[in-house]
Structure formats: C-alpha cells, structure tokens
Design goal:
The complex is a heterodimer of chains A (about 600) and B (about 300). Chain A has about 600 residues and is α/β, with parallel strands linked by helices. Chain A has 25 helices and twelve strands. A six-stranded mixed beta sheet of chain A has the order 8-9-10-5-11-12, with helices on both faces. Chain A has a four-stranded antiparallel beta sheet with strand order 4-3-6-7, with helices on one face. Chain A has a two-stranded antiparallel ribbon with strand order 1-2. In chain A, β9, α22 (about 545-560) and β10 (about 560-565) form a beta-alpha-beta unit. The longest helix of chain A is centred in the middle third of the chain and has 27 residues, at about 205-230. Chain B is built from eleven helices and four strands, in the order ααααβββααααβααα. Chain B has helices at about 1-30, 35-60, 65-90, 100-120, 145-165, 170-180, 180-185, 190-215, 225-240, 245-260, 270-285; strands at about 125, 135-140, 140-145, 220. In chain B, about 55% of the residues are buried. The chains are: A alpha/beta (about 600), B mainly alpha (about 300). At the A-B interface, α5, α11 and α13 of A face α4, α9 and α11 of B.
C-alpha cells in the first residue's frame, strides 16, 4: 500500500518533469500544438470521468458543455471584445446553470434514461449553434475573439498556451483527486455501485449525482473557453455527437474511475487521431469504436485500472491506517468508540433528553400495513424499541419481517400506519435522511461496495458525519482534513474491534461471508447510529461465529445503540433479545420476553413446530 | 392544410413506431437501450440501395414485386446484423454492469455509421424508388403511394408482431423471459435464444423502417438514423417503455405532434419538439402513457 503510494508519487513527479521539459526539448510548434490538444483532451476526459467513472452516469452529451464554454467566449469575444479571463467565469456559471437544468429532471431517473436525455441535450446544443446564424455564425462559426493577454504578453503561440493548459491540467487532476479520495468520492462510488447501500448510509443520491454532473460540466465549460482561445475559432464541427463519443471512449479506454487512466486515455485519443490525420476523419471513428469494443470485451477496467483504496497525496508519517490513532485509543475504554464526532454526540444527547423526559421509545412503529399487488405483506404491525434495547423479530419465511425492516428504514412506504424515531414522525422521510438521524441497517445479503477497500467501505458509513461540500474538499480545509482523519482512524478501530484489521486493504469480495457481515456491521457503527436494523445477521454463520456475533451485539448495545434484529437462529435470538416479536403472514402474532414468545403455542405451531 | 399535416404526421409516426418497437422489445427483455438499433435503421436503407436496383433489373416490369423483395431481403439481413449486435453488445458482457452494454451498443452504432461513411459514401445518396410515386386523395388530403406503403408497412408489421408474441409458442417464450428470466429458464425456455431472436426482430423492424423512409424521401445518409433514433426512443418512452402498444401509441402521437408543430416552428427545429416531449414525459410521467411492461401486456 505504502509502496504503491510512493510509486504513484514518483509517476506524478516524473510526469510533471517531462511535461515541463517538453517545450524546451521539442521546438516544433506543430508538435507543441498537438501537445496542447492532448492536454485539452485529457482535461475533458478527466471531467467526464467524474460523471461516468465515479458516479456511473452515462453522459452522451458531454461535449455540449464544452460547446457552451467555447461559444460563450466566441460570442462575447467576437461581438463585445470580452477577454478570455472574463469569459472563463461566465462560461463556468453558464455550464453550471445548464447542468442543473438538465440534471434535475433526469437524475432522478435510471441512468439509461439519462444517457438518452444527455444525447438529446447534445444534439440540441449542436443544432442551436449550427442554426442560430445571427448569434453563433452558423456553420462558419466565430473567429474574431481577442487574443488573451497576461502580464502584458499576448497568448498566441502554442507554447504560450501550453504552459497555461499544463497548469490547468495539474489543477484539474489535483482537484479531482481530492474529490475522489474524500467522502464525496466514496459517495459517488456508492451511488454508482449500489443505490440501496448508498441511501442506507445517508447519501442523498440525487444530490451526489447532480454534483458529479456539475463538476464534469464545469471542467468542460472552462476548457471549452481555452480551446476557443487557442483555436481562435469556434465552429459547430468541434461539438458534434461524435466528439462526445470520443471523450467517452477515452474515459473507458483509459479506465473508468481512474484518474491517471483519464489522462492516458485522453493522450492516446489525440495521438491516434493525429496519426490518422492524413485519412478521412471517419477512420478515427472506426479505430475508436473498435478499440472501445475491444477494451470492453477484453479489458473492462481499461489501460490503467482504478485504485480501490482512499489515498492522500502525501501520507504523513505515523498516521497510517489501522495502526494509527494513538491518543484516541488510549482515551477510550470500549474498543468500539463512538463519542468523537462532537456534533453527533451532542445531537444524541439532545434527543436522549427529549426521549428520556417524555418516556417516548426510540423507535415506535404504529399499525403499519403494506400491500404488494393484493398480498398483504405487513398488516397493522406495531412495535417499539427503547434506547439500548435489543428486540428480535422472528417468523417463518414470507412472514413480512424484511418488509417491516424496509418500512422502518424507509425503502418501503407503508400504506397505513406511522413510524416514529426519536419522537419524530419519519413515515414519509427518505431513507438517507433516516440514516442521517442515526438509523443504520444491514441487508439480508451484505451490500458492500465491490470496488472500495474494506476500510473505505467502513469509512463510507461515516458519510453522514460529513457536511463539507465540494469546495472545502478541493481546497483541503483543516476542518475537513481533520474530519477525514477522524473517520479513517475510527474506521480502522472499528475493523480492529471486529477482528477485521488484516483485511482492511482487501476488497469485500475477497472476504468470507461472515466477515462481509461483520464489515457491514462496522459500516453501520461508523454511521454513529442510535439503532441498527440487522437483517438475518447469523445467516450462513456457524455456531461459533454466531456466538461471537451475539457477544458483539452485546458490546454494541453497551454503547447505547438499540438493535432491531431479524433472524432464524434461535440460539442467537435467545441469547441477545430483550423482547421478541413473532410475525406470521404479515401480522405480529405475539410480543413479549424471549421465553414467553418462544413457548407461546401459536409460535410453536406456526414456526418452531411446523 | 391541417388535415394534410395530420396525415403526414401519421405516416411519419409509422416509421417512429417501427423503431420504437425495436427499442421496447429489447428493453423489455434485458433493460438495455440498444443504441445499435439506430445504425441498423441506416444499414437497412443502404442495403435497399443495393438490392432495389438489383431486383428491379431482374424483374424490370414488376416494380412492386422488386420493391417488396428488396424490403424483405434488406429487413432479413438487418435482422441477421441485429443478432450479430447481440453477440457483441450483450452476450459476452451480459453479467457486466448495464453501462458496459450501453457503451458497446453505442460503439457498434458509431462503427456501422463510420463504415458506411468510409466505404460507401460520406455524402447523402439519392434513393430511386422502383415504383411510380403517384399521389391520390384520402379524406381530402393527398397521400403518395410511397407514404401509403410506409403507413401500411408500419401497421402490418405491428399487427404481425403482436400476433407473433401473443399467439405463437416463441412469442410466449419472449413474454416468459420478459417477466422472469430465471423461471423461464427453469421451465425449459432458452433465455439466450430468445434474447438473440428479439435482437434480430428489433433490428429487422428498424431495417424495414430505414428502407421505407429512405424511399419515401428519396435520400439516404450515413447519419440518417441519429435524429430518427432519438425520436423512436422518445416514442417508446412516451408510450411506455417495454410495452408494444405503447410504442405504437407513442410513435403515432409523436409523429402527429411533430407535424402539427410545423405550424409554429421552422422545420429544422422539429427535433427540439421530440426532445421537449422526452423531457416532459420523463419529468412528469416516466412510465409513459400506457406504462406497463412487456410481460404484463404484450
């Protein structure tokens, strides 16, 4: 891990050194011009990589934002003599507005609809610049923009643009790197890979999709202005659908979700299309579509596959991974520590005060019912969980236990009844908002994110403890970096407490089934929950593991976390439950303490005796 | 005038319906927007550019028969190409994330278009229909014989497809796979054969549509599928993705809507109408007008 980190730093240093030396060694302005195109294309690819590679949104009209940037400068520059420096912020503003307008109606939908919507958007922008002759110059384009000046120098030569573009590329990579290796990046990957898991850990899916879409648009818009300035002309041919396709190909050929991959993919694209320059432009279409097919079929992760762990640019000595967090560890008495994030602890205390004073249960489910296509999955079920209590729900398969759990966590909306949490009615609240209130859950089959390391998966659970937006993350404010470090240390401690330290750099698919479940519990704990809903945690575990699980649940309870547990394993239910609810055919049949429920004749008949 | 635009809209709607049917069939089965469909429409038109003169030369005095033969052969070959698309864009990566399938079907779209551009012609090509294009009056408006063929083609193929899915054993297999691939497999339906076949059927519909449209307007172009494909997709979403009657309703509604919009907008903006419809439908009723799936209602 540290080695790969060092190696990455060496690559970056060598890359920058080569890039800086390049114009001194190569004097040909033709070659420098190609290098300029390579950088422009790499920036575009890096921007689209955020949208497609991180957030998993298939954007087929990406070039439209590039066009908006280019034409912002084209129109303002040629008609009003506005300089490039003024056009850049205006273009940035315009593309952000456009991305919100296109994003809000579409990002709620499935990603394949997004593909076609963005395709349509790209076509519309292309049609507009091609047909609005009086504004955009139609097919001829615009070409009277003032050459940008800086420090009294007029930027005209490819070499002059080169420096400027190189700085922008470095800034782009730096900013996108920061975003990727933060809670925002983890949320994006969660949204891409597992919508349910993302929402269960408090990620506002639409918001993060929109953020990715805006980040991508921003870079395309800004580099669009530079492109127009460098070319000294903007015309519709630069913004055809095929261009969107080429950027997408560059992302996928380089490696989806991989930042170095985006740069490599962008460079390769320009090199190939330059070397095919003598032939008709459609030869590069043929080559690129074939290359894309080959990559998807033979090397789906691309030339430079994405990394799985979180990284920081410079790892500080001694604060690495599971070994770190000295002072935190000595301060805590329990191995699982939850008290660090100040505002969360305060919130819990505040709620505790309300709950304690009024004697309201932490979770209060009242008469909820839900029907699926005529089948009454859950009928008028009520149950209450007080702080620090362990309540089990048992019942035969199909009794409606998981549906009940989905109602509590917000994934199924009940047709009747209400759910209260911490004294607040949450019946209509979205799952991610419930998660942010302190309601965590596991799934019947563990839903960990396959392309994140185990440690990152647990850190992703800490999502709701972050409030920082994209700008503090990119700037790297002290507060945000502290938060990130706390979450990392806490995740490492949680893994240690659950005996998963050694696996923290693996991907979840390498873990045994029992370890995957434990990892999911660790992720729940990273959410600083008030209650955890566990959907059959003992399924697939042997007797020994189940017994350990019981001990772990007791320890979790000691932290003041309540548990609502569904399981078929009676030894576990008997061991941990304060109260048991027996369900059958959607209804709560019996509620009471363990013995009275397990020996109740109805329960014995419908479930145990059956 | 109004009535004339209405008739034009219905005729155009027939071509949208055929493309929409292809989108909806594949989507109903494997939840994939098959972008390659768009290029198969173009491929159909270019195949007919080859076969129509061939059959006309063989049967010089039987224009109608030559035309029918050309439509059938082009449609069948496009169908075969559709099976080939499935072999690349679906089968090897059927367990990969849907985005891989979307991108590879897109790559096929670009590949076929640029192959046509490079090896046939980058310029628009004149299509000379083998039949005399007489126009006759219908309900007070004019309709040309080629327009009539297009309309008839759309209606007949839709009915054939409906009967095929509703009444044949194979159609039952398609419905079974659409509603639940696992249980279909358990019941002895070969899921993969069914999916390959549906790719083929969808492609053939797009191909026939391409032949009819290029003959009606007398021109073929390697990018002719792009805007029409977007409209066909809009039609499928408008009617309800995954629903055959939805494709029909959506196709004709969109055609008429677009035709009538020419009273308000210059014709180069009609694509904007389709796009606006798409945004509105997706924003307010993403399940479309009929909104049920292939499995529920064939």
């Amino acid at each position: 891990m540290i080695d790969s980190q060092k190696r990455a730093l060496i690559y970056v240093a060598v890359g920058i050194a080569v890039a800086v030396a390049f114009p001194f060694v190569i004097r040909s302005s033709y070659v420098i011009d190609i290098a300029d195109d390579m950088i422009i294309w790499a920036i575009l690819t890096a921007g689209l990589n955020v949208v497609v590679g991180f957030a998993g949104l298939l954007d087929l009209g990406y070039i439209a934002f590039f066009a908006i940037g280019g034409y912002t400068f084209g129109v303002l520059g040629s008609k009003f003599g506005v300089s490039m420096w003024v056009a850049i912020p205006i273009a940035a503003f315009l593309v952000l507005v456009a991305s919100v307008i296109i994003g809000i109606p579409t990002l709620r939908l499935k990603s394949d609809y997004l593909a076609i919507m963005t395709l349509g958007f790209g076509e519309i922008i292309y049609l507009s610049v091609n047909n609005l002759n009086s504004i955009t110059g139609g097919p001829n384009g615009l070409y009277d923009m003032p050459a940008p000046r800086i420090f009294g120098i007029t930027l005209q030569q490819p070499t002059q643009f080169y420096w400027f573009l190189l700085i922008l590329l470095i800034v782009t990579i730096f900013a996108i790197f920061r975003l990727r290796h933060s809670h925002i990046g983890r949320a994006w990957l969660a949204v891409r890979q597992d919508d349910l898991a993302a929402r269960a850990t408090g990620v506002n899916v639409v918001r993060y999709k929109l953020l990715a879409y805006m980040v991508g648009a921003l870079w395309a818009g800004v580099v669009g202005v530079l492109f127009a300035a460098k070319q000294t002309i903007v015309s519709p041919t630069s913004f055809q659908f095929s261009q969107s396709f080429y950027v997408l190909s560059s992302v996928i050929i380089g490696g989806m979700g991989s930042i170095p991959g985006a740069v490599v993919g962008g460079f390769i694209f320009v090199l190939i299309s330059e070397s095919l320059q003598g032939l008709s432009a459609s030869y590069s279409s043929i080559v690129f579509s074939l290359a894309l097919l080959l990559v998807i079929l033979l090397r789906p992760k691309g030339i430079v596959p994405a990394v799985i762990g979180s990284r920081r640019l410079f790892r500080k000595h001694g604060d690495g991974g599971a070994k770190g967090g000295r002072e935190f560890r000595s301060r805590t008495s329990t191995p699982v520590r939850l008290q660090d994030a100040g505002d969360v602890a305060e919130r819990i205390e505040r709620e505790e005060a309300v709950v304690g004073r009024r004697g309201i249960p932490l979770l209060n489910v009242r008469e909820v019912s839900v029907t699926f296509g005529g089948v009454k999955a859950v009928q008028a079920v009520s149950l209450a969980v007080t702080p620090g209590e362990i309540v089990s729900v048992i019942g035969p398969n199909g009794a409606g236990k998981t549906t009940l759990l989905n109602i509590v966590s917000g994934f199924v909306r009940p047709g009747a009844g209400s759910v209260e949490f911490s004294g607040r009615d949450i019946t209509r609240l979205r799952p991610d908002l419930r998660a942010r209130m302190g309601l965590a859950r596991t799934f019947q089959t563990p839903r960990l994110l396959p392309t994140l390391s185990v440690l990152d998966n647990v850190m992703q659970g800490g999502h709701s403890n972050f409030a920082a937006g994209a700008i503090p993350v990119v700037v790297g404010t002290l507060k945000h970096r502290h938060r990130e470090r706390v979450i990392r240390e806490e995740a490492a401690e949680l893994l240690a407490a659950l005996g998963l330290s050694e696996t923290s750099d693996s991907v979840p698919t390498q873990l045994s089934y029992g370890d995957q479940r434990r990892c999911e519990v660790a992720r729940c704990l990273a959410q600083h929950p008030r209650i955890i809903l566990l959907d059959e945690p003992a399924a697939g575990m042997n007797a020994r593991e189940t017994s350990d699980l019981g001990d772990m649940l007791f320890r979790v309870r000691e932290l003041g976390v309540a548990l609502l547990l569904i399981d078929h394993d009676m030894s576990l239910v008997r061991k941990v439950s304060d109260r048991v609810v027996a369900m059958d055919r959607g209804a709560a049949v019996v509620t009471g303490d363990v013995d009275s429920v397990l020996h109740h004749p109805d329960v014995v008949q419908s479930y145990l005796g059956g | 005038m109004f009535l004339q635009e209405l008739v034009n809209g219905i005729v155009v709607g027939a071509s949208y319906t055929l493309i929409a049917l292809g989108f909806t069939l594949v989507y109903g089965l494997i939840r994939l927007i098959n972008f390659a469909q768009i290029s198969l429409y173009t491929l159909g038109a270019y195949l007919a550019l080859f076969f129509t003169p061939l059959f006309s030369a063989i049967l010089p005095s039987h224009g109608w028969i030559a035309f029918a033969l050309s439509i059938c052969v082009s449609g069948l070959l496009t169908g075969a190409a559709g099976v080939g698309v499935a072999a690349v864009a679906w089968w090897p990566i059927r367990r990969a994330p849907i985005i891989s399938m979307l991108v590879s079907s897109l790559a096929i779209l670009i590949l076929i278009e640029s192959l046509i551009e490079v090896f046939i012609s980058p310029l628009p090509m004149v299509v000379k229909p083998p039949i005399d294009d007489v126009s006759f009056s219908l309900l007070g408006s004019r309709i040309s014989s080629l327009q009539a063929v297009m309309l008839a083609g759309g209606v007949v193929l839709t009915l054939v497809l409906y009967l095929f899915i509703r009444r044949t054993r194979f159609g039952r297999a398609i419905r079974a796979v659409a509603s639940n691939p696992e249980s279909a497999l358990v019941l002895g339906v070969s899921t993969s054969t069914t999916i390959y076949a549906v790719f083929g059927i969808a492609a053939a519909l797009a191909g026939v549509s391409g032949v009819l449209v290029s003959n009606t307007y007398g021109v073929a172009n390697f990018t002719m599928g792009e805007i029409v494909g977007l409209k066909g997709f809009t039609a499928a979403v408008l009617g309800g993705m995954g629903n055959i009657w939805g494709a029909v309703v959506g196709g004709f509604c969109l055609g008429v809507l677009e035709s009538l919009s020419t009273f308000l907008l210059p014709s180069q903006w009609t694509a904007v109408v389709a796009f606006a419809v798409l945004i509105l439908v997706l924003a307010f009723r993403p399940t479309g007008i009929l909104g049920t799936r292939l499995s529920d209602r064939a």
